[in-house]
Design brief:
Number of strands: 7
Radius of gyration: 45 Å
Shape: rod-shaped
Structural class: alpha+beta
Order of helices and strands: HHHEHEEHEEEE
Oligomer: single chain
Distance between the termini: 91 Å
Largest sheet: 7 strands, mixed
Number of helices: 5
């Protein structure tokens, strides 16, 4: 599209269709128009420095004979048309830059929103991965003065780990009994949840009595602790 066609068509660009290449093309057209304007001013300068407003008749009202009137009139006409074209192109440049800037801001906002969502997902995943594990059994009672009591076990502690037994591989209290039978005199790692906080204990059991009881509406495994341990 020529400068004149762009001006006559309104000189505007459709929203959302502007690219960097479009802006570069508009800037190229702008520079071409400016070069053409300067070339026509050079023509006027060559005619005894006559400008856009100097009279083309002498003091007696006759056409001036010291300048080429045709060249002067043509150059003046071209300058006026080219200045209008330049104004139209500058309007297009302004609109294009505004659209690009608005689109960049929108993209930045979208990218930031997506980054915040990703951070939230990462944070939630991180929180879930480090959330308090669920216990698979609950301490019902502990013999007073026993090494287990001295080690820090308390009633209502939820067992998360008992040696090699955890919530992933626990099936029945027989699993714990088996661990105890194979760990007499050896230090066992016991992890419990107490009032929402995780605690780690070390026990060396010699005997374990246990039973399964009902707790609430669900069948849960609970301990009747009578562990004689050396710690």
């Amino acid at each position: 599209m020529s400068e004149r066609e762009a001006r006559n068509s309104g000189g505007s660009l459709q929203a959302g269709t502007v690219t960097v290449n479009d802006v570069q093309e508009l800037m190229r057209r702008k520079e071409e128009i400016e070069a053409q304007i300067q070339a026509n001013y050079d023509v006027l300068e060559s005619q005894r420095g006559i400008g856009m407003n100097e009279p083309l008749v002498d003091s007696e009202g006759y056409p001036r004979s010291d300048v080429d009137l045709y060249q002067v009139r043509t150059a003046r006409h071209n300058i006026i048309c080219l200045q209008n074209d330049h104004k139209a192109v500058m309007k297009q440049v302004e609109e294009a830059l505004h659209q690009l800037h608005a689109r960049d801001k929108q993209k930045q906002a979208q990218d930031m929103a997506e980054a915040q969502k990703e951070a939230m997902r990462h944070k939630q995943g991180h929180s879930m991965s480090f959330s308090t594990p669920q216990g698979f059994a609950k301490v019902k009672s502990i013999s007073p003065g026993s090494p287990a009591s001295t080690a820090g076990l308390q009633v209502d502690d939820e067992i998360v780990e008992f040696g090699s037994v955890n919530s992933q591989n626990f099936h029945t209290l027989h699993n714990i009994s088996t661990v105890v039978q194979h760990s007499e005199g050896k230090s066992l790692n016991v992890v419990v949840i107490r009032r929402g906080e995780q605690h780690q204990l070390r026990l060396v059991p010699t005997r374990l009595e246990w039973e399964e009881t009902y707790w609430g509406k669900d069948l849960c495994s609970s301990f009747t602790w009578s562990i004689w341990c050396s710690v």
